[in-house]
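A protein record pairs a chain with a discrete description of its three-dimensional fold. The following entry can be read in just this way:
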Amino acid sequence: QVQLVESGGGLVQPGGSLRLSCAASGFRFSNNAMSWYRQAPEKERELVATVTRFGESTNIADSVKGRFTISRDNTKKMVYLQMNSLKPDDTAVYYCYTRVLADYWGQGTQVTVSS
């Protein structure tokens, strides 16, 4: 079955960096675009970044543009979110997402930006 497992979250000071990873299994990874979403407390889940099947194109939300980068490694079935210049407003649970006939989400990884 489709599985998405995130890792790499944690507590970081404002201005710091984190790299999130998502390990995918159970589907033909290179057939699918992959995305990262986030959900802050009492807010709706929002799309952060998407990468196309072979990484040739990415879309980044305006709120994180210039600070976050999405990438993927099809040989390892991994997708990454490099987050730089983190701000307290980036505090959220970050989810890996793909659609394989249905929507699939990982369990999420908490990112907390605080001094």
